[in-house]
Amino acid sequence: MFDSWRRKRTLARTRVDAGLWRRVVVSLPFLRGLSQQELERLRELAVLFLSEKEMHGAQGFELTDQVRLTIAVQACLPVLNLGLDWYEGWIGIIVYPGEFRVRKEEMDEHGVVHTYDEGLSGEAWPGGPVVLSWEDASSGETGYNVVIHEFAHKLHMLRGDDGGFPTPRDGMEEQPWFDTLEEAYQRFCDAVDAEEPTIIDEYAAEHPAEFFAVMSEAFFTDSAIVARDYPRLYAQLAQFYLQDPAGALPHPFPPGEGRGEGR
Ligand SMILES: [Zn+2]
Question: CA dist 195 to 189, 191, 203, 206, 221, Å?
Fold first, then answer.
């Protein structure tokens, strides 16, 4: 737990180079909708994030200031109005230059354990590190964002969910949240089963937790599509994140609502 005085001191002592900040913001087109005030808050959160988390380069990958800031900014976007305490309980971020291979084991129905290698662009461990591929983390692509994806997993892991849909934020009504997620997930899985083309990454059909992570990516980086095709889900995600990136809701969230201590 980080005291707010410590955070204030960190902010007072840390300067972010203005040129670097501009380069990073421009490289992430989905930040375009943020107000000057929101961008300022995002920069502060990123500074605190970098001081409280430990980032390591894997396979000799060099973590330049640009790499660190690009990852921090994307990681902080989902908690812009929630606060950094939502990422407590773990500190490590491991960055590979590109896709990384992990060894997986799976037991089949005969009890035989199969070992195989899988190429991944990101991974989040409960209570442990987030692992990212820089190649994927720096793409700035619309609708696809491995950093937001993995940090969305961190949010539902913090909520102590059982691997299904995350529990809603305190103060939200549970029934509409779960009903909306369930309905949207079923509709999405049906579309994938019917081999209908989907704008949202098909990987969302893998598991309820993946649906939440993939929809969170889309909510922040392709918000108009989510607001158009999944208006009820969009409204629930907006309640959860206290953000309305598509500007689709009648009343904007008052600044500061739900913001964590020391933000
Ligand atoms: Zn995932």
Answer: 10, 6, 13, 14, 24
Q: Give the Cα separation of 127 and 88 in Å (integer).
A: 9
99 CA distance to ligand 1 centroid (A)? 15
The one-letter amino acid code at 117 reads D
Ligand 1 centroid to residue 106 C-alpha, Å:
17
Using DSSP's 3-state secondary structure scheme, residue 113 falls into: strand
How far does residue 72's CA lie from ligand 1's centre (Å)? 19
Angle at alpha carbon of residue 58, lines to 55 and 64, rounded to 5°: 55
Q: pTM to 2 decimals?
A: 0.90
**Over pLDDT 70: what percentage of the chain?**
94
123 Cα: distance to centroid of ligand 1 (angstroms)? 7
84 neighbors 92 (Cβ within 8 angstroms): no
Q: What is the pLDDT of residue 254?
A: 63
Helix axes 174-193, 208-221, angle to 10 degrees: 90
Measure 203 CA to ligand 1 centroid, in angstroms.
8
Contact at 8 Å (CB) between 172 and 240? yes
Computed over every residue of the chain, the mean pLDDT equals: 91
Ligand 1 mean position, distance from CA 153 (Å): 7
**Among candidate residues 199, 196, 192, the one with its CA nearest the CA of residue 218:** 199
Judge whether 140 and 27 are in contact, CB under 8 Å: yes
Query: Cα(260) to centroid of ligand 1, in Å?
Result: 25
Measure CA of the first residue to CA of the last residue in the chain; give whole Å. 12
